[in-house]
């Protein structure tokens, strides 16, 4: 029974020494001296703020992309015991002792290091020689820009890692297609493709470019499968469903999970939540939630409310009035109604309170039981402090003469009667009998007499003159076809009014609201709102000292100074390996010219290379050349501030194209032994130049050793490079 113990248990394993050596070299190149400099380097000042907010569980919105990359950086801080206490306000600021610099920079460095073996495996899976694959990996290893970007708390190296992992996984899956369809390894690589694509998109939306490329490639491959008569209809359907599940459904679910974790972690109110809706703010701990927690849910006749404009641009504001009136005549000579001003005020104030009144009754308190206001009901809005009614009439607004002035009505005993009836329209209603709800309902107020809609003026950046205390204009918009958020309001603060006497009511309006009903948004509601804010909320793009155009990247006519030592002159720059970038451009040009030549010749039924070599050439170009194109060309259509690091995913694919072209030239154009020997010698000389450039610029890549004034000037190979030289 125990006979198997008589023989030793033997485990055999195949170890690719090339792969192990490349991984070790990648780790050394990215992890060496990782804590240097112990100071804030370039965009660490930006991402570090978000890491601190994660540590303190404070909500934030970053319009640069989804939260997965930020969470990975925060994971490094968490593993290092970071408490979030550091002021990220200046590039070059020395890190305090509580900041785990090595831990914060570890994950980007590991991702950058693993890109080296991934490059090797991608070329192998494309069916190129191990020599070509080794060359691709070494080019990635010695690429100065990729080293620099991966050694700091930045996201590009993580993005490139997931992009390359997605490409490798798809190639492995595709190569298993003919012989091992639906096997365990087939499923593993297919699922990993979808997961890696989702992670790439979750780090930065630039990951979408490669994701679309792989979806198009998968679609093309499936199209070819349809023509395979050996596959049954059932088999084709299974293949289609498997790809749909792994490449679309699972990535979407994973993408949602990034936001779920993000929102679960950031449950505390902070400075960024003011751009969110009242419902979203109320779901966070502290902030608005402390004020609105437990308010009555249903707005009733007699309710005391504040109304926040949903648009929130140019800033959040609340419907407001005060005792001041519009001037009899404006500066341009136009006349006004001289009624009490109504504005949108960007601060919380007692003059933001309004009372919802039933036009058929005089009381300003909530009855028992309360009578809720529903969609389509007619109401009057009474200003809480001045007790004047919200009104509009056919008088031009002060800043928007094509719209109606909105005021609180004062009876001057002239032929201008009050027009103060408003119809409540719940925009996000589920039925026409919906009750107007606190925070949750988005409502429009339609003027009964003129059909004008109450609107926060769209005159962006403009505010009322001194007579209006620089507050924002509110108008009655006559052209109200269609939905616009500036016409939509929601109740933020709410109480049931109890005091009929004005003096008692004023005391009531000044007191805080404290009642006992909670309002929680669903995850999907939060996700939808946050996703929309990320996509639409754009900071004003300003010219940056190191910003550049997409055309500057190809020839590397630009650089970015990441860090400068305060005394020694040591510095770190984002600069690519000039020899590699020039070779990548040449390889792309050669590939394009050769492909066009082959296509023309094949059209004439002249086949210069075997069909297998042609398929290899086209598939490699589709992945490497296509990867460069989809990650580069879209930047010509973007209206945003661009930097050199945006080009790094594209140039990574372009670098992979170099050994593809070199092997093709060696195999099919160098036909004699002499030509092959000369070509090999040229490759050795060229690769020596790549290594020479890497070594020459390594002081600017790693920030050490410090260089003298003469040495720094010698490294300025282009006049457009901004090498920092201190004045003596």
Automatic annotation (TrEMBL):
Domain MIR: 296-359, 370-427
Database matches in InterPro entries: ArnT-like_N, MIR_dom_sf, MIR_motif, PMT-like, PMT_4TMC
Catalytic activity: a di-trans,poly-cis-dolichyl beta-D-mannosyl phosphate + L-threonyl-[protein] = 3-O-(alpha-D-mannosyl)-L-threonyl-[protein] + a di-trans,poly-cis-dolichyl phosphate + H(+); a di-trans,poly-cis-dolichyl beta-D-mannosyl phosphate + L-seryl-[protein] = 3-O-(alpha-D-mannosyl)-L-seryl-[protein] + a di-trans,poly-cis-dolichyl phosphate + H(+)
Membrane-spanning ranges: 68-88, 100-120, 126-142, 154-174, 186-203, 208-226, 246-267, 578-600, 612-630, 642-662, 674-694
One MF term in the entry's GO annotations: dolichyl-phosphate-mannose-protein mannosyltransferase activity
GO CC annotation: endoplasmic reticulum membrane
EC number(s) on file: 2.4.1.109
Subcellular location: Endoplasmic reticulum membrane
Keyword terms: Endoplasmic reticulum, Glycosyltransferase, Membrane, Repeat, Transferase, Transmembrane, Transmembrane helix
Chief location: endoplasmic reticulum
Membrane-protein topology: Multi-pass membrane protein
Keyword presence, Repeat: yes
Functional pathway: Protein modification; protein glycosylation
Family statement drawn from the similarity comment of this UniProt entry: Belongs to the glycosyltransferase 39 family.
Protein name according to UniProt: Protein O-mannosyl-transferase 1
Name of the gene encoding the protein in the UniProt record: Pomt1
């Amino acid at each position: 029974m125990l006979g198997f113990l008589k023989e030793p248990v033997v485990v055999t394993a195949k170890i690719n020494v090339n792969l192990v050596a490349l991984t070790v070299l990648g780790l050394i190149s990215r992890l060496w001296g990782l804590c240097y400099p112990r100071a804030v380097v370039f965009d660490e000042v930006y991402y570090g703020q978000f890491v601190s907010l994660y540590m303190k569980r404070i909500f934030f919105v970053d319009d640069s992309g989804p939260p997965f990359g930020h969470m990975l950086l925060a994971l490094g801080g968490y593993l290092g015991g970071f408490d979030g206490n550091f002021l990220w306000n200046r590039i070059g600021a020395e890190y305090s002792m509580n900041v785990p610099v090595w831990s914060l920079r570890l994950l980007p460095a590991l991702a950058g290091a693993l890109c080296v073996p991934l490059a090797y495996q991608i070329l192998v899976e494309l069916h190129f020689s191990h020599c070509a694959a080794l060359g691709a990996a070494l080019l990635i290893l010695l690429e100065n820009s990729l080293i620099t970007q991966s050694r700091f708390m930045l996201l590009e190296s993580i993005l490139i890692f997931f992009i390359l992992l997605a490409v490798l996984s798809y190639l492995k899956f595709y190569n298993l297609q003919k012989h091992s369809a639906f096997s365990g390894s087939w499923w593993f690589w297919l699922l990993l493709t979808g997961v890696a694509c989702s992670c790439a998109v979750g780090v930065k939306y630039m990951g979408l470019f490669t994701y679309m490329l792989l979806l198009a490639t998968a679609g093309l491959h499936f199209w070819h499968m349809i023509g395979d008569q050996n596959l049954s209809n059932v088999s084709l359907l299974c293949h289609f469903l498997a790809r749909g599940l792994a490449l679309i459904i699972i990535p979407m679910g994973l993408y949602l999970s990034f936001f779920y974790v993000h929102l679960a972690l950031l449950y505390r109110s902070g400075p960024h939540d003011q751009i969110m809706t009242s419902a979203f703010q109320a779901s966070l701990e502290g902030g608005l939630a402390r004020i609105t927690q437990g308010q009555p849910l249903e707005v009733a006749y007699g309710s005391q409310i504040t109304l926040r404009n949903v648009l929130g641009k140019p800033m959040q504001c609340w419907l407001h009035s005060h005792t001041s009136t519009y001037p009899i005549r404006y500066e341009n000579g136009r006349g006004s109604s001289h009624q009490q001003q109504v504005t949108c005020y960007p601060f919380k104030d007692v003059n933001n309170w309004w009372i919802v009144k039933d036009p058929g009754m005089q009381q300003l308190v909530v009855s028992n039981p309360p009578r809720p206001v529903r969609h389509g009901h007619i109401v009057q809005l009474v200003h809480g402090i001045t007790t004047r009614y919200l009104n509009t009439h056919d008088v031009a607004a002060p800043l928007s003469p094509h719209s109606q002035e909105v005021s609180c009505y004062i009876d001057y005993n002239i032929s201008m009667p009050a027009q103060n009836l408003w119809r409540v329209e719940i925009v996000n209603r589920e039925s026409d009998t919906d009750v107007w709800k606190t925070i949750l309902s988005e409502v429009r107020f339609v003027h009964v007499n003129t059909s004008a809609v109450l609107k926060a003026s769209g005159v962006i950046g403009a505010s009322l003159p001194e007579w209006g205390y620089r507050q924002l204009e509110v108008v009655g918009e006559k052209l109200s076809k269609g939905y616009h958020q500036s016409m939509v309001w929601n109740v933020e603060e709410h109480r049931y009014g109890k005091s009929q006497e004005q003096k008692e009511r004023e005391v009531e309006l000044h007191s805080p609201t404290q009642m006992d009903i909670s309002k929680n948004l669903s995850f999907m509601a939060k996700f939808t709102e946050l996703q929309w804010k990320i996509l639409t909320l754009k900071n004003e793009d300003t010219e940056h000292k190191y910003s550049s155009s997409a055309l500057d990247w190809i020839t590397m006519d630009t650089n970015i100074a990441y860090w400068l030592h305060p005394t020694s002159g040591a510095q770190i720059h984002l600069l690519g390996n000039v020899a590699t970038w020039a070779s990548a451009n040449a390889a792309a040009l050669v590939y394009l010219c050769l492909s066009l030549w082959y296509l023309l010749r094949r059209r004439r039924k002249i086949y210069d290379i075997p069909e297998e070599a042609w398929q290899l050439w086209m598939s490699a170009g589709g992945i490497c050349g296509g990867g460069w194109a989809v990650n580069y060309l879209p930047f010509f259509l973007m209206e945003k501030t661009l930097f050199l690091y945006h080009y790094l995913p594209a140039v990574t694919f372009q670098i992979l194209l170099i050994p593809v072209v070199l092997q093709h030239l060696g195999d099919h154009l160098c036909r004699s032994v002499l030509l092959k020997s000369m070509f090999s010698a040229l490759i050795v000389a060229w690769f020596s130049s790549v290594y020479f450039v890497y070594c020459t610029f390594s002081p600017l890549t790693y920030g050490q050793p410090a260089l003298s004034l003469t040495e720094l000037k010698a490294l300025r190979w282009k006049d457009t490079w901004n090498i920092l030289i201190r004045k003596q």
